[in-house]
Design goal:
Elements: H1 30-42, H2 60-73, E1 77-81, H3 84-94, E2 102-105, H4 112-118, E3 123-126, H5 138-143, E4 149-155, H6 164-174, E5 177-181, E6 189-190, E7 193-194, E8 201-205, E9 218-222, H7 225-235, H8 242-245, H9 262-272, H10 275-293, E10 299-300, E11 315-319, H11 321-324, H12 328-337, E12 343-345, H13 354-357, H14 386-395, E13 396-399, H15 408-423, H16 425-428
Parallel strand pairs: 2-3, 2-4, 4-5, 5-8
Antiparallel strand pairs: 1-9, 6-7, 8-9, 10-11, 11-13, 12-13
Helix pairs in contact: 1-9, 2-9, 3-4, 3-7, 10-15
């Protein structure tokens, strides 16, 4: 492998290391085409009925996919939904969250993790993240528990599980429920169990740029019979069903159309058969990247904690900016000029979004924060999550592996681009 160390940076007029576009990641093949064709030919594209009927639970492919997910992930219940955002909304409702209850969530996540809490007029409280895994820091969670805390939402960000032993211990101590948002980490393991299966309710995204997908969709998983029952109700017009079903607990029995169709579920079954292989391929790419980048000074490659595996939705790096003497923006610009695509300088800090800074979600009067539902002043000011904020502002650099189907040669070119930039740091100062 040539490192191009003696070459002028492409940013300064030199030749690019990578002259070609990388192949787009696409796990859809003939199996999915055949599965979709079979459903279309059957004429049954959906079979849900929003009434208490055998078809309340969906058509044959929905049921078959759910049973297959139960067996695959080793859980009692799998419930499909039309998006993972829908899944998060359903999960928060199903655990019995009341208006004004507080749910602890990390800020370093997709915005839906927190807005799912607001959906039920509950209050997101942001706890900081671990600098190694970017997942919820149990110490920060403990520090943010109040008399009004009712749940914790852990996010298995970028492909690595949160510290579930510690979070579940905190939950047991304070009588809290735990939701795991494992949208980005299907197929990752935590101490021998699939990430997403160690909480009261968890699940996975089937959005088009995830490891496996159905275009849009999601799967909730739980071992709790009552939660599973409530998830199915919320998914499908609960309010119209509870009377005939004999449901007596009407809390959060406002239902929606969160239903996934027959075509998507047929595709999902074909995709699930590929998950182990696709994750292994992603891990092999990440391992090769790590071998090529780990020696670069001032660059920390992804951390994988003992007894865990990483599914690498994103290859997440941290830059030692004081050591490097070059800003992240300049490094990203130089790498992009060399042909490295899919770089993300920074991630999101949800608590700093305008909705939280202005405390305005429903209407124009600051509901729910200004209502009697919110039982104390909630702090969303800059500085409450210093680790997440620093990573976003200056040191985090992600490579979106989810976008690419990378060969060994592609990986070697990416490594060469990084090495070339690092060999020319002085030219970037």
């Amino acid at each position: 492998m040539t490192t191009q160390n003696g070459n002028r940076l492409a940013l300064h007029g030199g030749s690019k290391v990578i002259e070609r576009a990388f192949k787009r990641y696409n796990p859809i093949g003939q199996e999915e085409l055949d599965a979709a064709k079979q459903v279309i030919e059957s004429g049954i594209l959906s079979q849900f009925i929003g009434a208490w009927d055998p078809d309340f639970f969906g058509g044959p492919k929905v049921k078959e996919f759910e049973r297959k997910c139960e067996k695959y992930f080793g859980v009692k219940h799998a419930i499909t939904v039309n998006s993972w955002t829908s899944g998060l909304i359903a999960a928060v409702g199903a655990i019995g969250i009341e208006p004004g209850d507080e749910v602890i969530v990390p800020p370093f996540t997709m915005c839906a993790s927190a807005t799912a809490i607001l959906h039920w007029n509950a209050i997101p409280v942001f706890a900081d993240i671990e600098p190694e895994t970017f997942c919820l820091d149990p110490k920060s969670v403990e520090a943010n528990i109040s008399p009004y805390t009712k749940a914790i939402m852990a996010v298995d960000i970028f492909g690595h599980s949160a510290d579930m032993d510690a979070l579940m211990a905190i939950a047991a101590k304070h009588n809290l429920k735990v939701i795991t948002d494992t949208a980005q980490a299907p197929g990752a393991f935590y101490k021998g169990k699939y990430a997403g299966t160690l909480s009261h309710v968890g699940g996975y995204s089937l959005n088009y740029h995830k490891h496996i997908h159905t275009g849009e969709g999601g799967v909730l998983v739980t071992d709790d019979d009552e939660i599973a029952d409530r998830l199915r109700l919320i998914r499908n017009h609960a309010e119209a069903v509870v009377g005939d079903k004999g449901v007596t607990n009407l809390s959060n029995m406002i239902g929606y159309n969160f239903r996934l169709g027959e075509i998507e579920c047929a595709i999902g079954m074909a995709q699930l058969d590929k998950l182990e292989r696709l994750v292994k391929e992603r891990q092999d790419v990440a391992d090769r990247l790590t071998q090529g980048l780990v020696s670069l000074p001032g660059l920390r490659v992804p951390v994988v904690k003992p007894d865990c595996t990483h599914s690498y939705y994103v290859y997440s790096m941290v830059l030692d900016i004081p050591y490097l003497g070059v800003s992240r923006a300049k490094l990203a610009e130089a790498l992009t000029a060399e042909g490295v695509t899919g770089l993300a300088p920074g991630y999101v800090n949800v608590h700093l979004l305008p909705m939280y800074q202005q405390k305005m979600a429903y209407g124009s009067r600051g509901f729910p924060w200004t209502s009697e539902l919110c039982q104390r002043e909630i702090d969303y000011s800059k500085g409450i999550c210093p680790v997440a904020e620093e990573l976003h502002e200056s040191s985090y650099l992600g490579f979106a592996m989810c976008l690419h189907d990378l060969s060994k040669d592609d990986v070697d070119l990416i490594i060469a681009a990084f090495r070339k930039v690092w060999a020319n740091l002085e030219a970037l100062k």
